[in-house]
Amino acid sequence: MPQAPQEITITTKDTSFTVYSVEEYNQLPDSLKSPFISEQLQKLETDRLRENYRREQEEKEKLTPAGAVVIIVTLAMVFYFFRNLFTSAKYDLKESISENLVDESAGQPLHYPGRDLNLSEDEIKRICSKYNPYFQKLSFDKKIQFIRRLNGFMRSKHFYIYAGKGYKEMPVLISAAAIQITFGLDEYMLPYFSNIIIHPDAYLADNPLRILMGNVQGRSITLSWKHFLEDYQNPTDGKNVGLHEMAHALQVQYLFTKRNRNNEFKEDFAHYDRADDEVLKEKFDAHGLFDKYALKDKNELWATSVELFFERPADLKLDYPELYDSIKLVLNQDPLTL
User: Fold this and answer.
1) Which H or E element spans position 292?
2) Are β-strands 210-212 and 214-217 bridged in parallel, bridged antiparallel, or unpaired?
3) Domain boundary, last residue among 42, 65, 85
4) Coil, strand, or helix at residue 300?
5) Facing residues of 98 across strands?
6) DSSP string of 76-137, one letter each residue
7) Distance CA 129, CA 310 (A)
8) CA 203, CA 250: separation in Å to the nearest integer?
9) Which residues pair with 10 in a beta bridge?
10) DSSP letter (8 states) at residue 183
């Protein structure tokens, strides 16, 4: 039975308005579209997916083979429009990166064990020199150390790529994000996490259903390659999904998987834990560094603080000197002195 049009309220900084279909949304000017999902839109599309799933389950037993094909095609189309709804920029890796990792494939995600990559140190250096601003600032000796750590980290992981093609830069640069935040630590391998999952763009996650640009769950670190790459191309805006998720992974590695074991990271993190209370207690950032999402709990504040520590270190130190010094202690490095 056809459903009545449902309202979608689009909220901007200054105003809000309503559209009644995905088609109307797609006709909006680009300035009104955003990769960030409004709460209203997310709830509506989540409800639609849940309703589709419920109907599919009810019809499962009485479907003919032809009917099953119709359902599968319909769901694929729903997901296609759902995904495009939240992406205003066309994803085209070929224009930004040209190194093929594997041939085109279909069906299951491409699986590439890091130990089989066999990338030379010269290749890793070339990729990091081109795309990673942190690496570009390191001294010659530190660059050698960074590359060797990166190679060891990369070889210890399994990379799963949900795309027809993979690129050498994917495992190299995502591994570089992990090495960047752990570069001052003796233990940097994040052994609890064995899988790096890469989606070409924002992706649909379950439990609960939502659209994400990155997350840490189980023994996997998952990232949207489009957003990861864009964030590294703008290294001073304080937003970096790669550093954000690696900060969560570091927290899980040392605080949650070693609850009953003392370690240096845990001891140093206690200093940060006291400093972040000054930010959280007001639930409002007068300096404009932390958004509402960052202030919702300690875990998100930590990950966002790490982003700012590397991308806007001078601002973070000026506005929150105690917080900055505590992160410098935890990570045993100072971006201002690279």
Assistant:
1) none
2) unpaired
3) 85
4) helix
5) none
6) HHHHHHHHHHT--S---HHHH---EEE----SSPEEEEGGGT---HHHHHHHHHHH-HHHHH
7) 17
8) 23
9) 17
10) T
Whether residue 153 sits in one domain with residue 81 = no
Residue 76 lies in a domain: yes
Q: How many structural domains compose the chain? A: 2
Alpha-carbon torsion (55, 58, 64, 69), positive or negative: positive
What's the pLDDT score for residue 164? 83
What is the predicted pLDDT for the residue at 287?
A: 73
- Nearest residue to 121 via CA among 159, 167, 154, 156: 154
Pairing of strands 195-199, 158-161: parallel
Q: Give the CATH number, domain containing residue 278.
A: 3.40.390.10
SS3 234: coil
Q: Tell me how far apart the alpha carbons of residues 239 and 82 are, in angstroms, rounded to a whole number.
A: 24
Q: Nearest CA to 245 among 289, 181, 296, 288?
A: 181
> Do 59 and 107 share a domain, yes or no?
no
d(CA 163, CA 174): 16
Q: Among the three residues 85, 117, 136, which one is the final residue of a domain in this structure?
A: 85
Answer yes or no: do 173 and 258 share one domain: yes
In a domain, 166, yes or no: yes
pLDDT (0 to 100) of residue 264: 86
If asked whether residues 108 and 68 sit together in one domain, one would say: no
Which tokens in the block code for residue 19? 């559209």
The pair of three-digit structure tokens given for residue 262, joined into one six-digit string:
């003392």
- Residue 1: inside a domain: no
Q: How far apart are CA 331 and CA 250, in angstroms?
A: 10
C-alpha count within 13 angstroms, C-beta hemisphere, residue 270: 5
Flag whether 201 is in a domain.
yes
Going from the C-alpha of 157 to that of each of 98, 104, 151, the distances in angstroms are: 23, 22, 10
Range of the domain at 160: 95-337
Ranges of residues in the chain with a pLDDT under 50 are 1-6, 10-17, 19-20, 25, 28-32, 35-38, 78-105
Q: What is the edge-to-edge ordering of all strands in the sheet holding 195-199?
A: 110-113, 158-161, 195-199, 220-224, 214-217
